[in-house]
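User: My collaborator sent over this chain with a note saying "see what the structure looks like." That's all I know about it. Can you take a look?
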Amino acid sequence: MEMLLSALLGEGITRSLNFFISKSSKLQPHDVEDRFHRVLLRAQVIIDEAMGRQITNHVMLQKLDMLRGSMHRGYYMLDSFRYQFINGQDARDQITSQSLSPSKVTYFKYFCHLKRKIQIFEQLQKMLDNLRSMILDMEEVVIFLTSYRRSYRQPYSMHILLGNCMFGRQMEVELAINFLLHTQPQGPQELEVMPVMPIVGPGKVGKSTLVAHVCKDERVRDRFSKILWLCDHDFKDDELAFIEECTVKLENLVTNLNKDERLLVVVELVGDPTEDAWNSLYSTSKRCMSRGSKIIVTSRSDKVVRFGTTRAITLKFLTQEAFWYFFKILVFGSVDPDMHPRLVQLAMEIAKMLKGTISGANVISSLLRDNFEIQFWYKVLMFFRGYIQKNISEFGEHPSDRLSQDRPAQLGRVSIPSEEVLVSHQYQYSSQKEIPKIGILDVVFGSIKPLGKFDMLLWRSHIPPYYSYVYACEIRELKIAGAKRKRPMRSGAALC
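Assistant: Without extra context I'll predict from the sequence alone. Here is the result:
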């Protein structure tokens, strides 16, 4: 009788889902899902085509960026709807298979899941209408899109494309290129202002990568005779020394240029320069550089925006929806995710824990691709949950937040749970510098145990400026909770 009641209740919950959905829409869930997927594919065709075009119209770039964001949200919502249904089936199976009286807590959780699924379904319908409207508004954009020159030949697979270009930054790249190619009206040279574009954003958001992609563009290379990079990484505590170094580099470079040759100067600032320091660098640049030369300045501080002569570009980390789109393509590559729904479900949970870090997405995606088994992916998920919870309980913060601010964080070891990896500092190496031979996967998921303090390679970027990211680490034994040190025996105790 108990089993029969349990089965009837599980079936009733499932039917109630279809009842509520049928009341909220004339379409069945499967119909909405199919239509939504077709609309997303139409949006993706427009976005993929635009990625290979040199678009100069600012309004078109904005509309494409809005469509791209809606597409990312749509795919995220569709995957949530599809793969939360797996959870529902698991819950139902759990209810109907119980031999004892079903727990009220279990039913409460399942009803909450039911309510959430109905909410997602309603959001799907709204998003479907919004995407249709956006695509209709893009008809003129699609017509004009073919008039823009192709910047590269698009590869057959999207995961190959993402491995060789920036993701989600097309509007920012084209805005920077348009600034560099813009010709100022002629006037007295002494009254002309040296054009400066600020690019600001938090650390590891991709400022240097953005500028490197801009400088690699053939239009920019044809425009400027030389590109000079000035970085204050080595002058954090000596602003005057940095300005003097910049002045020497500028003067030495200009002596080898013709009078009319244009120069592009990229200034990468780690700290927050004073007004006097910037004015000194700006005056030197204006005095040494010929007409048509320009400056790009990057910084984590919003204060450098005041140094610009044009609107600044502000970079932010990818949204959760955009990051999932990126991570899913990296993980599954040319494999059809619909053939592995359980793996997609686990990948969504892992992506949430990475908190939008591009380096983490590349490292973990390669790990999952090499071990395409549900048991291993589940093991990775549980490992992430464990070490994230440990960092939150000990430091009160997610480890990604601490590492992004160059503060110590703890990493676990899958193969040796009794040990942990303490990351004390992180470095950013240029492509010319020799990188460590030990990788993070060798230590965290392998059995390699270097002695003492050592450097560990997190990730080596395959796109300009080809930076390598390195952790300074140390492996420590975990302290056993509740373990007490034995007191030394006193001389009199032995006689008792």
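A starting point for your reply to your collaborator: The longest strand covers residues 419-429.
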